[in-house]
Design brief:
By secondary structure, the chain is α/β, with parallel strands linked by helices. The chain is 35% helix and 31% strand. It is globular, with a radius of gyration of 19 Å.
């Protein structure tokens, strides 16, 4: 048994030993999103959860709190260093005064606000969200820089951001195909998503604490890191960076999942054509 497998077993043992202190638990294992969904209710479409997210964001808007995440009040701004870095880098590479960002599952602007807080840079930022959040966003949160939509726009964007969203949707690869063909961004950032070292993707049920999403369960994908990167390459995007996010590591049975982020840049075919 090699060293990495031994470390993996030690982590599995440690995680289960602290299971009841863990904020999030991952239950069962399913081959598809649909099979996992049979064991849960409304998931992230829950009206109760959406109302909570809206109400907490209104507190942000009024200045009573600084930031929120999934309806949870945050006392200080989270700093997504890698996201900020790559947005600023893209702005520099394009030599423009503002970069355009399409943010999937961006709620009512959490990542947008933290980018603005730490960089002060101008940006065109569009959030793709559920109807209820989009209606609230248009009514109370939109601005010259920040807009909301329920559909993937037909216009081009410099950067497409998926933060803690691809592992919660039924067909993430179909979304990536549509984004790469319809929008063709220079950069795709995938952040705060679950990856493991096995050869295939699988689904579990994520059970969260009551103070986060009312203790509900949600189907969540554990992506095979190797398979995901390979699929992105097939779409014309090379991995240029990878990082572990503050969400840490979790366990399902004997598998260790790591929350990771990736930056994928559009493949420049002209540089690899044979003359």
């Amino acid at each position: 048994m090699n060293v990495s497998k031994i470390k993996n077993l030690f982590y599995v043992f440690y995680w289960y030993a602290s299971y009841f202190r863990s904020r999030n638990k991952f239950l069962g294992r399913f081959k598809t999103f649909s099979l996992a969904r049979l064991n849960v209710g409304e998931g992230y479409a829950s009206s109760e959860l959406l109302h909570k997210i809206i109400n907490v964001n209104r507190l942000v808007l009024s200045g009573h709190i600084v930031q929120e995440r999934d309806g949870v009040k945050l006392a200080v701004f989270e700093n997504s260093i890698q996201i900020n870095f790559y947005l600023l880098l893209e702005q520099a590479l394009l030599n423009t005064n503002r970069v355009s960002v399409l943010d999937f599952g961006g709620g009512l602007g959490t990542t947008y606000r933290q980018f603005k807080f730490f960089t002060k840079q101008k940006v065109f930022w569009t959030i793709v969200e559920q109807h209820q959040l989009v209606a609230e966003g248009i009514a109370n949160f939109s601005s010259e820089e920040l807009t909301f939509t329920c559909e993937i726009p037909k216009t081009n964007y410099d950067v497409v951001l998926f933060s803690a969203v691809l592992d919660f949707v039924e067909d993430p690869y179909a979304i990536l195909v549509e984004v790469s063909s319809k929008i063709s961004p220079n950069l795709i950032i995938v952040d705060r998503s679950l990856f493991h070292c096995g050869p295939e993707d699988f689904y579990t049920l994520k059970a969260t604490a009551k103070h986060i999403t009312n203790g509900n369960k949600y189907p969540v994908a554990w992506f095979s890191k190797e398979r995901f990167v390979s699929r992105m390459e097939a779409l014309g995007y090379n991995k240029v960076d990878e990082w572990k996010t503050p969400d840490g590591q979790v366990v399902n049975r004997a598998s260790v999942g790591v929350y990771r982020g990736f930056a994928f840049r559009k493949f420049d075919k002209s540089k690899h054509e044979v003359s």
